[in-house]
Amino acid sequence: MPLYSAAPVRARSQKLRADADTTELSRKRRILILGICCTSLLLVSLDSTILNVALPVMQRDLGASLSGMQWTVDAYTLVLASLLMVAGSAADRIGRRKVFTMGLITFSLGSALCSVAPDLRTMILFRVLQAIGGSMLNPVAMSIITTTFTVPRQRARAIGVWGSVFGLAMAAGPLLGGLLVDTVGWRAVFLINIPVGAIALWAALRHIPESRAPAPRRPDPIGQLLVTGLLGTVTYAIIEAPGKGWTSAEILACLVSATVSLLGLLGYESRRDEPLLDLRFFRSAPFSGAVVIAVAGFVVLGGFLFLNTLYLQNVRGLDALHAGLYLLPMAAFMLISPPASSRLIASYGPRPSLVLSGAAMALGSVLFAACNAEESRPLLFLGYCLLGIGVGMVNAPITNTAVSGMPLSQAGVASAVATTSRQVGQALGVAVIGAVLAHGTRNGTGSAYPETFADAARPAWWVITGCGVAVLLVGAASSGRWAQESAERTARLFEETGTAGPAGGAASYP
Fold first, then answer.
1. CA 296, CA 290: separation in Å to the nearest integer?
2. Residue 504 pLDDT
3. Would you state the pLDDT for residue 46?
4. How far apart are CA 464 and CA 362, in angstroms?
5. In the chain, how long is the greatest CA-to-CA distance?
6. Phi-psi bin for 327: left (phi > 0), alpha (psi -120 to 50), beta?
7. Pairwise CA distance, residues 24 & 164, whole Å
8. Sign for the pseudo-dihedral over CA of 224, 163, 482, 426
9. Between 46 and 23, whose confidence is greater?
10. What is residue 489's predicted lDDT score, i.e. its pLDDT?
């Protein structure tokens, strides 16, 4: 009878080989993994913008109201925002590759169902399914990148590539959407996700090694429910109030529910050892500023895309392709601005990028709010260029400001909250701008009476201008010396208590 069993030795050997496989990957395989992760980012980010160009055609085909079109966008962004942090935490527990591949399957299935949706209700339902899959992609993909690229210099380059892909998706969405709508039909904006998702799934199963966090955080289902309830009820009230009335029982019930959710979230999360959202992060002025900037900046992006798509197609009478071509100047600056912003941050910190971004957003939108830029093609394109610079410059300093002064262990979770804030801002942009527009148009749809549309859009442009000013002012205030000192005090607080902050992944991501 043997004195020992060989099974434990074999098991240890297999584990060592698996660990070596994840930490000592060949350069070619690391680049391949980066490409797979960037493909998932392209899918999720592109879907946030590509749909906007198709909205007027979808509205006619599905017989939807303006609020119905708002929901096709916000059902996606709201669910995405609500689940980003919990998806990253789940991947740390049960396996990043496993959650990532589940996300690709769910996202592709949701896209396929959206492409055959017969009416608005089913479209919104399938968009929710799409977003559930999307929430399992971006935060998990970034965790995979950080465990794949262990050398700091290589990791920085990989994250730089990741950020460029995000900018590419934001810039290319309207043009690609217009091309697909005019050549194939609006359902093609969903169908295109299926082959890309299938290729990414095959490559992920073949090339991405499995990994888990050594000490994953405990789930926080109550916190997750409160966050979802807060975001959902606020957005529902904003979108539906123009039609139902702010004093209607349904809207008042939503506002009461949102208040209860907010108070419950503040009370419950402050008492948990491992909360979904650690409220102590907000003691850091740069972090709080990053959240405000993310919301305001992406209100500009979401509101502009929604408003301008309706204007170009329903008022100017352009088809989807030409509407996308009109946005090329904005797309070009959204593509070239992020690298310039990153260089500014590396040399001078986040303040110049934030101030320039806010100023460009405010100046670009005030051309429409006060100078009737719609009536002059040069002014129209100047406004697009300024907005492209503003949106393109804001993304990198949001993450940089959010993690400023934080200990390394908090960098990922801080940027995870900033990422969620971006999605919240985009959802609110569509909701608020759509509500303002619906209130001002005679038929409440934003689709008729061109002369009414211009007048109704004026307050919406002032809202966008205000958000640009907020980015400028908050960016300047949250990047100074006193703000940095508040971040350092917050970092010491976490180091002294030995806590890890909110769940959401291991690294920063756009």
1. 10
2. 39
3. 83
4. 7
5. 94
6. alpha
7. 26
8. negative
9. 46
10. 83
**Residue 347's pLDDT is what?**
83
As given in the structure block, the two tokens for residue 24 are: 């000592």
Give the per-residue pLDDT at 114. 94
Phi, psi of 478 (to 5 degrees): -90, 5
Say what the pTM is.
0.80
Cβ(388)–Cβ(333) below 8 Å: yes
Report how far residue 258's alpha carbon sits from residue 249's, in angstroms, rounded to the nearest whole number: 14
For the stretch 246-275, pLDDT in tens is 888 888 998 999 999 999 988 888 888 777
**Residues 140 and 102: beta-carbon distance below 8 Å:** no
Amino acid present at 174:
P
Q: How many CB atoms lie within 10 A of CB 151?
A: 10
Cβ 478 vs Cβ 288: under 8 Å? yes
Say how far apart CA 80 and CA 458 lie, in whole Å. 30
Phi, psi (degrees; rounded to nearest 5) at 53: -65, -30
SS3 labels along 305-350? HHHHHHHHHHHCCCCHHHHHHHCHHHHHHHHHHHHHHHHHHHHHCC
Assign 3-class secondary structure to 258-272.
HHHHHHHHHHHHCCC
CA nearest to 72, candidates 52, 89, 86 = 52
When pLDDT is cut at 50, 70 and 90, the band that residue 2 belongs to is very low
Closest CA to 423 of 445, 395, 387: 395
The pLDDT value given to residue 152: 67
Q: Are 159 and 2 in contact (CB under 8 A)?
A: no
Q: What is the pLDDT of residue 317?
A: 84
Note the pLDDT tens digit of each residue in 122-170. Answer: 999 999 999 999 888 877 887 788 778 877 677 767 776 776 787 778 7
Q: Exposed, middle or buried by CB within 10 Å (0-12, 13-18, 19+), for 503?
A: buried
Mean pLDDT of 203-228: 81
Percent of the chain with pLDDT over 90: 24
Among candidate residues 277, 291, 330, the one with its CA nearest the CA of residue 428: 291
- Count CB neighbours of 118 within 10 A: 8
DSSP 414-433: HHHHHHHHHHHHHHHHHHHH
d(CA 300, CA 286): 21
Between the two ends of the chain, the Cα-to-Cα distance in Å is 59
d(CA 311, CA 300) in angstroms, rounded, equals 16
